[in-house]
Design goal:
394 residues; alpha+beta; 60% helix
Length: 394
């Protein structure tokens, strides 16, 4: 089979970027082909545990992988987005792919053409590719929700309980159940939320919300989505506008479903999604919100020149104030933190890309390659090239 032709045609039909890997290296990339840029090789940083599978570096940027069985080929689908592209996400993608600022405009124009797609729809695309290449049928629910098997056996039981409770008008208060649920989302505690949702308990009933079971399930879902965003994710640190957009997206997707089991599965995915995003936004203990904002700004601008004025401006404070807060809370000054973030990114580039030392030092805004090498060796005790060779033997 001509896998490159398959990828090219899949992109032409769906407009979702597709890449083909051979032995871990990019053999084809729709983005590279259309923009005439060098394809990246960051895919190798993701482990292969199932086929197909999701691959995340960020909750805002989605990828999926389908391994072509009995070959050394892999198809990477993405990036895909379930919310409108923002400057923040664009910058995150540029950093994720280690693209220099000269590509910013053409990349922004390209990414805006990618159609918005929900997590569930993305799973269906991966399943279709798996079917085409490996001739195997998989369940979308099994793919996008790891714990589907834990819940699947109880779906019929839950539905029957729901119907029985409606008949008996057995209403009871779900307040404490909900408070515990949304606390886990607010804390970004994915593992505890999984345990909570998979526990063998009677699901609290919230009263009759519609005349049919399907409409009742949809109304419950809408209520849960709004509460997950407003009582869980937003207090947990998620951006307000992004949370509202995600609520709208999930409600729209729910309205398209025609089976109660599918609504339950989507609700699980929705709750875990909000929990993951809140966890990504959570401020570490002992760090003030002002310092945390500055830290995130520095981490997302390591490939751009950063001045103390730029950092202080993020929280509308003076340079002396931010300098003092960094020293007090982190034990280092702002300049040292900037260098630390750039060196951490340099380690990733040395391990997962073929960029030269000159390219890496220029991309991360070091004054020269020699200075980059000296700072790297002082920090880690070995040269960048020694680190690259060591990393690739692991």
């Amino acid at each position: 089979m001509d896998y490159i032709a398959f990828c090219r045609n899949y992109f032409d039909v769906t407009k979702i970027p597709v890449s083909l890997l051979k032995s871990g290296y990019v053999a084809y990339s729709s983005i590279a082909e259309h923009l005439s840029i060098e394809p990246q090789t960051f895919w190798q940083m993701w482990p292969s545990e199932q086929n197909p599978e999701f691959c995340y570096l960020s909750p805002d940027i989605e990828y999926g992988r389908v391994t072509v069985e009995n070959t050394d080929y892999e198809v990477i689908l993405g990036p895909a987005f379930n919310l409108p592209l923002t400057e923040e996400v664009l910058r995150e993608y540029m950093r994720e792919q280690a693209l220099s600022l000269e590509y910013r405009e053409i990349m922004a124009e390209y990414l805006y053409t990618i159609p918005l797609i929900s997590h569930r729809q993305f799973a269906r695309h991966l399943n279709l590719i798996h079917l085409c290449l490996n001739h195997k049928v998989t369940n979308a629910d099994d793919l996008y929700k790891q714990d589907t098997t834990l819940l699947a056996g109880r779906e019929e039981q839950h539905l029957q309980q729901l119907l029985d409770n409606q008949e008996n008008e057995n209403l009871h208060n779900s307040y404490y159940f909900e408070m515990e649920l949304y606390q886990y989302i607010r804390d970004g505690s994915e593992e505890r939320l999984k345990e909570f949702l998979s526990a063998d308990r009677t699901t609290p009933k919230e009263g009759k919300m519609a005349s049919t079971p399907l409409r009742h399930a949809k109304n419950l879902f809408i209520s849960a989505a709004v509460k997950a965003g407003m009582l869980g994710a937003i207090p947990g640190g998620m951006d307000i506008e992004k949370a509202y957009q995600l609520i709208d997206l999930y409600i729209q997707e729910c309205e398209q479903l025609s089976r109660i089991e599918a609504i339950h599965a989507l609700q699980y995915s929705m709750l875990m999604d909000f929990c993951r995003r809140a966890g990504e936004s959570r401020i570490p203990e002992g760090i003030s919100s002002e310092v945390y904002v500055c830290m995130n700004y520095i981490r997302s601008h390591t490939n751009e020149p950063i001045s103390l004025e730029d950092v202080a401006a993020q929280v509308s404070r003076s340079i002396s104030y931010i300098t003092k807060r960094f020293k007090t809370e982190l034990g280092i000054n702002v300049g040292a933190f900037i260098t630390r973030c750039r060196l951490e990114e340099a380690k990733s580039l040395l391990t997962h890309s073929n960029k030269s030392l000159a390219e890496i030092s220029s991309y991360l805004c070091f004054s020269s390659q020699a200075y980059f090498q000296n700072v790297f060796k002082k920090k880690y005790g070995i040269t960048p090239m020694q680190y690259r060779k060591q990393g690739r033997r692991l």
